[in-house]
Write a structure and sequence with these properties.
Number of strands of chain A: 12
Shape of chain A: globular
Structural class of chain A: alpha/beta
Largest sheet of chain A: 8 strands, mixed
Number of helices of chain A: 11
Radius of gyration of chain A: 21 Å
Shape of chain B: globular
Helix content of chain A: 25-40%
Number of helices of chain B: 10
Number of strands of chain B: 12
CATH superfamily of the largest domain in chain B: P-loop containing nucleotide triphosphate hydrolases
Structural class of chain B: alpha/beta
Strand order of the largest sheet of chain B: 6-7-8-3-9-10-12-11
Strand order of the largest sheet of chain A: 6-7-8-3-9-10-12-11
Distance between the termini of chain B: 39 Å
CATH topology of the largest domain in chain B: Rossmann fold
CATH architecture of the largest domain in chain B: 3-Layer(aba) Sandwich
Helix content of chain B: 25-40%
Number of domains of chain B: 2
Largest sheet of chain B: 8 strands, mixed
Oligomer: heterodimer
Chain lengths: 348, 368
């Protein structure tokens, strides 16, 4: 629905960390949108700023980090969008949004739940915080939530502690807590990274089913391209605090435009490709965000880098369509800049 | 019935007949068992045992890369470490064929007699951040095995360390730096250099790329491959990542609750698994191609692994197996043995593996 405003629109977000060793530009001009009812995957390696982007949305950036520029437009219903960067992170409005309208699932399910309280305590607390329910009604809703995320015998599990459950079960509980107040957006930060493949597959199925059922949007953060291919509608590829490429999932995997996306796809082993095949590599390492290279951040590792261009000037932002863009000089042939060359339809 | 019932030692005999050249095992593990006691109460009485490794038979051929896969808690790390005797095995034999062609049972040697063999079997650990001492320089870290083995001293030691660092792709000029100055990929190179500096023949690599970034992972995998070719190494590659294992391993052993449920050549195992657990593992791996979404058979296992201190009777996998038959798979007397299939190259521990047409990878599409 192109006439519809996106649920979340991040525009030129900059979140920097002011450390004693200098400023770390963890997120440095990130723009992305999350359409209603869609799953957007943010993919990138460690240190690319994907988690900080997500935490910036909820005002959860730890000291000494600060959002220094940009807008995060949040528009759950009709009416004017709210700019989340202008809200006080500890204020009443932000606290209502956090957990109520936007909620988050973290990477380590075992560490995210308190071992001092039962699953039920933690789930009921969230429900009563966001919904006007009495104790009994909240408990019934908690049981209902646990059943929805596929936990067997939810009445008994309500009185269990997190250490009595497996990692997969804990992640289901985390999802139940996140969905307790029917949020419009779920931010999932590497929710399956700590889990076994068999459990991961079931958690991904669950998220997909819940999304189909509730129509919520999902901002899914991961480094695993296999998971992206499995769940995403749209993909945002990040490298060193910037978005290098954006596009539909099929476009990203079958028509990658940025050299980094291309190299990343080439360096992962594909099952069914057969044994003993050498993998294509990306030379060097991901630089530390505090000493990022000038110009295009990827140029020291890029095979297509043009000397005197890529290492000097910031790469241009080439827009191919509403949800398709790339930051690379290779696609800058003048006509395409800001043009309306759309490739977001089905490719043959 | 073309199937014959015998344990894996018999099966390796079949393999030897099929492929004489490559079948000489450098390591032959027989009935290896590692039990960890569970202690409770004021007097710390032992109330039970976690059977982390539960009577494993496995032969590793010289020059091959043997993958060991399974979910967390299946005992794959314990198996790898007990073969190197980092963890003491409770029972069983680890028969190692040394350079002179003699067979030595490493499991029964005492610490002093084990030392010469510890130089020949080395371990690369998983986490490049916690496995290097932050107070030691690269020179000390990589040189330590040389120094403690007492064979090399002084400037020769420095030369050996420098050439080893160069071999794994690190510049020797970094020798006096500490690990914190290096990225995860570089630290894993240090880890590999430390394992290889004594010139081992067998390397046990315990999840060597799991903690690394996607773009660095490929570099380390290619490095391991090059070193294997150059130094004629044999790898025991422990991993939970089935796509990495497919890429680097010649053969794969699948573990479940301390037992091996299937061993086969990589191509065979991935194309045509013979154990339901292998099929389930393969179907759970997310494939990096959105066009494969929803393709193939989807098997979803229940989350909960049975308690390894108290495994279920019969086939350990029957509680989660979609094909389990009551009265057959859950009978204690009919616990499945590793059974070789017709070709003789592969074995699986499942009483129903012949009647089930299990689906592997790549059976659904032609691929991109």
């Amino acid at each position: 629905m192109s006439h519809d405003e996106p649920l979340l629109a991040i525009d030129g977000l900059k979140t920097h960390f002011f450390t004693r060793e200098g400023t770390v530009r963890a997120v440095d001009g990130v723009s992305l949108t999350v359409p209603r009812g869609k799953t957007v995957c943010v993919v990138g390696e460690s240190g690319c700023g994907k988690s900080v982007t997500a935490r910036s949305v909820l005002g959860l950036v730890d000291e000494p980090g600060r959002i220094i520029d940009g807008r995060i437009a949040w528009q759950p219903g009709a009416g004017e969008p709210v700019d989340l960067t202008t809200l006080d992170p500890k204020g009443e409005r932000m606290r209502r949004i956090r957990g109520g309208e936007i909620s988050m699932v973290f990477q380590e399910p075992m560490a995210s739940l308190s071992p001092m309280y039962t699953i039920g305590d933690q789930l009921i607390e969230t429900i009563r915080l966001h919904l006007p329910l009495g104790k009994e009604e909240a408990r019934d809703r908690a049981v209902e939530q646990l059943r929805r995320v596929g936990i067997p015998r939810p009445e008994e599990r309500l009185d269990a502690y997190s250490f009595q459950l497996s990692g997969g079960m804990c992640q289901r509980v985390m999802i139940a807590i996140a969905l307790a107040a029917d949020p419009a957006l779920l931010i999932a930060d590497e929710p399956t990274t700590a889990l076994d493949v068999t459990t991961q597959a079931r958690i991904i199925d669950l998220l997909r089913d819940l999304q189909a059922e509730t129509g919520m949007s999902v901002l899914f953060i991961t480094h695993d391209l296999g998971v992206v291919a499995e769940i995403a509608d749209e993909v945002v590829v990040m490298y060193l605090g910037t978005v290098v490429e954006r596009g539909g999932v099929d476009e990203i995997f079958h028509d990658p435009k940025h050299p980094y996306t291309n190299a990343l796809l080439g360096s992962i082993p594909r099952m069914g490709a057969g044994a003993g095949r050498r993998l294509a590599t990306i030379r060097g390492n991901v630089p530390h965000p505090s000493d990022r290279p000038a110009g295009c951040p990827f140029h020291p590792r890029c095979d297509a880098a043009i000397g005197g261009v890529c290492d000097v000037s910031d790469p241009p932002h080439i827009v191919f369509g509403e949800a398709r863009s790339v930051r690379c000089v290779l696609h800058d042939d003048g006509a395409a800049v800001g043009g309306d060359f759309r490739v977001d339809g089905e490719r043959a | 019935m073309t199937t014959m019932n015998h344990d894996i030692s018999g099966a390796s005999g079949v393999e030897a007949g099929a492929d004489e050249e490559t079948a000489t095992p450098i390591l032959d593990v027989r009935g290896l068992t590692v039990h960890f006691p569970i202690k409770k109460g004021f007097l710390s009485r032992t109330v039970g045992h976690v059977r982390a490794v539960d009577g494993i038979d496995l032969s590793v051929r010289a020059g091959e890369t043997l993958g060991i896969v399974g979910e967390s808690g299946c005992g794959k790390t314990t198996l790898g470490r007990s073969v190197a005797r980092v963890i003491e095995p409770t029972a069983g034999q680890i028969v190692y064929r040394d350079t002179a062609g003699r067979n030595v049972d490493l499991a029964e040697l005492n610490a002093r007699r084990l030392r010469p063999y510890q130089r020949q079997i080395r371990v690369v650990f998983q986490d490049p951040f916690s496995s290097l001492n932050p107070r030691m320089t690269l020179r000390q870290i990589v040189g330590e095995p040389l120094r403690t083995s007492g064979t090399v001293t002084g400037s020769e030691l420095d030369d050996r360390v420098a050439s080893m660092l160069e071999r794994v792709g690190l510049s020797p000029k970094y020798m006096n730096r500490y690990p914190h100055a290096f990225s995860g990929g570089e630290r894993q190179r240090v880890n590999i250099a430390r394992a290889l500096v004594l010139g081992p023949r067998v390397v046990i690599a315990d999840e060597p790329v799991s903690a690394l970034d996607v773009s660095v992972r490929a570099q380390i995998l290619n490095l391991l491959r090059d070193l294997q070719e150059e130094l004629k190494l044999t790898y025991l590659f422990v991993s939970h990542d089935l796509s990495v294992v497919e890429n680097i391993c010649d053969r794969v052993a699948v573990m479940y609750l301390g037992k091996i449920v299937e061993v086969a050549g990589t191509a065979d195992l991935y194309a045509q698994p013979r154990h339901p657990y292998t099929e389930a593992l393969l179907s759970a791996v997310p494939r990096p191609d959105p066009r494969l979404r929803g393709a193939g058979r989807r098997i979803r296992l229940a989350d909960d692994l049975p308690d390894p201190a108290n495994p279920p009777p019969g086939c350990y996998f029957h509680t989660r197996c979609p094909y389990a038959v009551p009265g057959v798979c859950d009978v204690a007397e009919r616990a499945p043995l590793l059974t070789s299939s017709g070709s003789g190259h592969r074995v699986a521990a499942c009483v129903r593996s012949d009647e089930l047409g299990l689906a592997g990878v790549g059976s659904e599409v032609g691929g991109p």
